[in-house]
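Our preliminary data section would be incomplete without showing what the modeling component actually yields. Below, a chain of 429 amino acids is followed by its predicted structure, encoded as tokens that our downstream tools consume directly.
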Amino acid sequence: MTSTTVATEPLFCPEIAGFDVSELAKKYGTPTYVYDAAQIIRQLDRLRAFDVIRYAQKANSNLAILALMRRQGVVVDAVSVGEMYRAHRAGYPFTTAAGLPPPIVYTADIFDREALEWVDRHRIHPNLGSPDMIDQFGQRCPGRPVTLRINPGFGHGHSQKTNTGGPSSKHGIWHEQLEECLRLAERYRLPVVGLHMHIGSGTDFEHLAQVCEAMERMARRVGPQLTTISAGGGLPTPYRADDIEIDIDRYFELWNATRRRLEQALGHSLTLEIEPGRYPVAQAGYLIAEIRAIKTMGNNLFYLVDAGFNNLARPILYGAYHPMAIATKDFSQQSETVEVVVGGPLCESGDIFTQTDGGTVVRRRLPPARVGDYLVIGGAGAYGFVMGSNYNSKTMAAEVLLQQGADYLVRNREPVEDLCRLEMIPTNY
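Predicted structure:
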């Protein structure tokens, strides 16, 4: 892999939300994820104009985060049996007995057999993304209301891997199949009460306007049985210092205007949902790692830390950029910076946090550091811990929640003994 230099913020990060980074590291060890509850609440408050905020928990499904969402009046999306289970453990009821909106909606590309059984047994509202899903749900649960996820024929994303619309995406019902799917739903007496459309992450206003237009066309074809439209997620999240915050008021107005036109056409009010995942939690999360080696390889100076892509996979998957800062053990700060490559401990050449999409290694400007200092990776609250793995038989990191002046351990560091807990050597092997 070749190396190039990119400009970054030369940062020190002595504290997170008023908590000393060195003290957090000493108390909980490293690597450790830290989440700022106040930042999550601030992000949610920006979305309050929408009738319903439905959190896409795949971004961060820690039970404490889900419980925080519930206390903030946020409902959830689940893409697996595990996420349905997590939501329930965090206090969400399975059924809509308490009223609408559904507290949990199952949204996935398939019904695996266990998921279909759970949706049936617990009467969880489904968001169906294929004719086969409609057929399978209809055979098992005739007469129950459903939402349809539509692929409008185009998509958007900061990486092709995060593009969830268009002909190369596996997500949703192809827009040209809507009539077929409505007939299929009618066969099983499934009222189509919701439409959902999500084209990918980092949606800009040009693409958003196209999504709104597509939603309006599809909703008119569904007709008066429709009660809810979902704007999906994909709200852009700034990671670089010069990234611009999205204008949420403008975002809402585009969707609200669509909703109002549809209400006039359908003759009744509609609920407008938004389904953020990354937006509420990304900027609230930090990964603290200890610098364990500093070495020169040719023209590259490496900071090697005790967190790897087993802890944070976004850089190796998408070439994703994360802000980085240094927290020194002795609280010293220097004005000078050095160009460094930041890597992890894994026996894998791609275990580099400073890389672009395609695997090109880049240098960052960071303050001079010593072994034992800490690297703080920002913007790590979404698709961080949840994408973690035990690659190289590494254990999963601890998770800590900072809220109202207190720090709470919300997930223990995985004990090394648990790595083999589900494994066995056959008898007489």
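Residues 1-8, 156-165 have pLDDT under 50 and may be disordered. Residues 138 and 188 are 5 Å apart (CA to CA). Preliminary results of this kind motivate Aim 1 of the renewal.
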